Amino acid sequence: QVQLVESGGGLVQPGGSLTLSCAAHGNSIYAMGWYCQVPGKERELVANINFSGGVTNYADSVKGRFTVSRDNAKNTVALQMNSLKPEDTAAYYCYAHVFLPHNNTVFPVWGQGTQVTVSS
User: Fold this and answer.
1) 117 Cβ contact list (under 8 Å, min separation 6)
2) CB under 8 Å, gap of 24 or more: what pairs does 55-61 form?
3) Span 5-47, pLDDT tens digits
4) Which of 6, 50, 77, 78 has the fewest CB within 10 Å, making it most exposed?
5) Using CB atoms within 10 A of its CB, is residue 33 exposed (0-12), middle (13-18) or buried (19+)?
6) What is the Cα 55 distance to its own chain's centre?
7) Sheet architecture: strand order including 66-71
8) Which phi and psi (to 5°) does residue 30 adopt?
9) Tens-digit pLDDT profile for residues 67-77
């Protein structure tokens, strides 16, 4: 079974930077990425990255500030967050798409979440 372990969250001042990391343990991992969620709201996509690392997607609100990357040799994905704003405050969840060969589909596996709080 695939498991994802996140780290790197914490308290940071507006304008500061933070880097989140997610380590995947298992096989057949394809696309990976990050969602965020605040209480009472739906979980929203922040960024994702394909297997090769050559294709990335970002929410409009984080474009130019956040960078997603991955290291397939280590089965990790990272989210570098710069110029942080108070509205970035949320729980951040790593995910990975795990391939299901019997039906040629993938399903998402989620990390435990890590809290990012941007406040002065």
Assistant:
1) 10, 11, 12, 89
2) 57/33, 61/87
3) 999 999 999 999 999 999 999 888 999 999 999 999 999 999 9
4) 50
5) buried
6) 15
7) 3-7, 18-25, 76-81, 66-71
8) -110, -115
9) 999 999 999 99
Q: Is 68 exposed, middle or buried (0-12, 13-18, 19+ CB in 10 A)?
A: buried
* Number of neighbours of residue 107 by Cβ within 10 angstroms: 11
CA angle 93, 97, 49 (to 5 degrees): 75
Counting every residue written for the chain, the total comes to 120
Contact status, residue 50 vs residue 17, Cβ threshold 8 Å:
no
Q: Residue 66, Cα to own-chain centre: how many angstroms?
A: 11
Average confidence (pLDDT) over 74-81 = 95
Integer Cα distance of 99 and 35 in angstroms: 20
β-strand 10-12 against 114-118: which pairing, if any? parallel
